[in-house]
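Bit of a strange request maybe. I'm writing a small parser for structure token strings and I need a real example to test against, not something I typed by hand. Could someone generate the tokens for this chain?
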Amino acid sequence: MRGVTLVELVVSVVVLSVGITGILMVIAQTVRHSADPMRLTQANAIAQAYMEEILSRAPTDPSGDDTGGPEAGEQRATYDDVNDYDGLSDQGVIDQNGQAVAGLAAWRVNVSVRPGTLEGVNGQRIEVRVGHAADADFTLSLAAWRFE
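Reply from user aminoacidic:
Good idea to test on real output. This should exercise your parser:
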């Protein structure tokens, strides 16, 4: 029987080290992104809640004073048309009555409403963008059209 030479031992240690490093990198990547599905689901729920609120409003101002944003003195609780939401920017999720939603302070929500044409029909394209303070690269965007 023959023993192991020093060169063979060093080569074995290097090969094992490279293999273990690769496995640990995969585990670290998995752990780092394990919350992504939950964050995505929560962002989607927030965006849908804002979108439902916006789509429940009239496409144009009922009083005829549409300014492309909220009219003077109007607050979110009194928004009466889709255009009033243009430029809405919330740091933390805020309900339509102006109350912060508990546990959602790290989220940011931005809304834009732009006139446009979809297949020859005039309407408004509404986009709700939701992001999280813990990840500047994470943004979920939800878009819908509102027609008269």
